[in-house]
């Protein structure tokens, strides 16, 4: 099976812009979670989608949003970018949830100038 | 907020030695997972241990879980230079898809 893919791998934006990141799960995986990783805060949960519905949400401002399509692919969007949004954004997928192993993609490195 | 706290923060050893990393957490969990991350790349899943298990092995990896002490340890035996990476423990405390990560242990294995 192909692994989790994320596009783009690298992105440079300026403050105030918006960005959309994409995650394609492993075939058969219906749950997609997003995480933000920064040197200061470490790995933090953003949100999780399952069957096109947001099932869980972390403690991030409303500028961070996401969605999931019928083929389980997911996108996350960050509007009005701030310098502090510079991070590695990781998505993780699993079959359904409930204690299964999560498989991570390679991440998207976002730099906000 | 971080649930798991890894100890030590950094570990430097020689090839062939064993590496032990510890993780403590705060709340009840369904399972605890260990991941490896090479230099800012994606996380690679190493092993999952459920709350009703005490020990698990996978190749050169051995994980223990003590729910009474809310702690886990990861032992890598006969370390190799390729094991150089950051190691994270993550707790799954809801049965849903929220993993709570610690800040990780940076392992350096010198040839």
**DSSP summary, beta strand count of chain A:** 11
Along the chain, the helix and strand elements of chain A come as: EEEEEEEEEEE
What integer value in Å does the Rg of chain B equal? 13 Å
| Uncertain stretches of chain B | none
Number of helices of chain A: 0
Q: Tell me the β content of chain A.
A: over 45%
Return the average pLDDT of chain B rounded to an integer. 91
Distance between the termini of chain B: 36 Å
Q: What is the string of SSEs of chain B from the N terminus onward?
A: EEEEEEEEEEE
- Tally of contiguous helical segments of chain B: 0
Helix content of chain A: under 10%
The averaged pLDDT of chain A comes out at 93
Radius of gyration of chain A: 13 Å
Structural class per helix/strand content of chain B?
A: mainly beta
How many beta strands in the DSSP annotation of chain B? 11
Shape of chain B: globular
Structural class of chain A: mainly beta
CA-CA gap between termini of chain A: 37 Å
Strand proportion of chain B, as a percent range, falls in over 45%
Oligomer: heterodimer
């Amino acid at each position: 099976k192909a692994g989790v893919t994320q596009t783009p791998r690298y992105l440079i934006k300026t403050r105030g812009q918006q960005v959309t990141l994409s995650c394609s799960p492993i075939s058969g995986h219906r749950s997609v979670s997003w995480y933000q990783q920064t040197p200061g805060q470490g790995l933090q949960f953003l949100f999780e989608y399952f069957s096109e519905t947001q099932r869980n949400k972390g403690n991030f401002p409303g500028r961070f949003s996401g969605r999931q399509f019928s083929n389980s692919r997911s996108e996350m969007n960050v509007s009005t970018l701030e310098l502090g949004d510079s991070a590695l954004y990781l998505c993780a997928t699993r079959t359904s949830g409930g204690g299964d192993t999560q498989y991570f993609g390679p991440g998207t490195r976002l730099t906000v100038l | 907020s971080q649930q798991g706290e890894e100890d030590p923060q950094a570990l430097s050893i020689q090839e062939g030695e064993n590496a032990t990393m510890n993780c403590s957490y705060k709340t009840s969990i369904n399972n605890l997972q260990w991941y490896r991350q090479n230099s800012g790349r994606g996380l690679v899943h190493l092993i999952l241990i459920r709350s009703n298990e005490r020990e698990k092995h996978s190749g050169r990896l051995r994980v223990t879980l003590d729910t009474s002490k809310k702690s886990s340890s990861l032992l890598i035996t006969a370390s190799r230079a390729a094991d150089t990476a950051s190691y994270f423990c993550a707790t799954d405390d809801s049965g849903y898809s929220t993993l709570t990560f610690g800040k990780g242990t940076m392992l350096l294995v010198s040839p």
